[in-house]
Amino acid sequence: MHVIEASEVHQTMNFEELIPAIEETFAGTHGMPQRNVFSLQEDSDHSDGFAVLPAWNSKAIGVKAFTHFPENGPKGLDRLYSKILMFKRETGEPLALVDGSSVTYWRTAAVSALGSQYLSRKNASRLLVCGTGNLASYMALAHATVRPITHIDIWGRSIDKAEKVAEQLRTERPEISVAVITDLESAAGQADIISCATGAGEPLILGEWVKPGTHTDFVGNHSPNRRECDTALITKASVFVDSRVNVLSEAGELLIPIEEGMFDKDDVKAELSELARGQHKGRQTEEEITVFKTVGTALSDLAAACLVVEKLTN
What we know:
This protein has helices spanning 6-12, 15-27, 100-119, 136-146, 159-172, 184-190, 231-236, 244-250, 252-259, 272-276, 298-313; strands at residues 2-4, 30-31, 36-39, 49-57, 60-68, 80-88, 94-99, 126-130, 151-155, 177-180, 193-196, 215-218, 238-241, 270-271, 290-293. It contains eleven helices and 15 strands.
């Protein structure tokens, strides 16, 4: 059995290959039970947690297990630790143990970019990224892979962290103009694509800020009681998700408007597999506002891990 570390994942991955691989996997025959996320502190809304995510397709069986400990930062530890165990589909033999944290960065951004491929305007050129954590640069680079991005705005609560993200992007894509911004309302009103990967508990992006034709993407929140956008945006937009069963059990972006009576679970237009199979065409008009809410899926982990294993073992 191969043991694949984070450094090998990063050396192997690129969005040009990963995004089509995820699209192919979601369009194909697969199994993906609801992921199980367990709170290790029942009295907390933002607690230490443990999760198990199984999935399989014609190539492999995979299960990702991860821990999330929000208070690890001051201890000098990562907040998230993750591993993906892979088995051969035809025989069930153990195939590989893959670092899950690195895969998660790549596949999270790739899924958002794939959603944008269906839901943003084809000529979208201005991107706003909210968040300055580990995911920020991945999100920006993934979106810039599928759309002709010429300008990226970076917003975060720490200017220093935002500047570091901006410098990384300038190094990776010097032809793109990158700026750190502090006026979030103004930047949101100008953006063609808004991508949020933050730990915000209260809405960052308000519906009244977002202009017609904008695509919005929210990946940071996994809690029923927290959200990165407000109800106004959800009610004025066409809403899509990576997985109905996961989002509708975990994401406050939709669960809070549902509780308020302002949204219904049946108002979700499609999930990612339906977009990938052509069962829904995605964006319908140039003026439509779209929301793509993701909480992560085992199938995207499987697709990314399969790509890594194939490239490193063939």
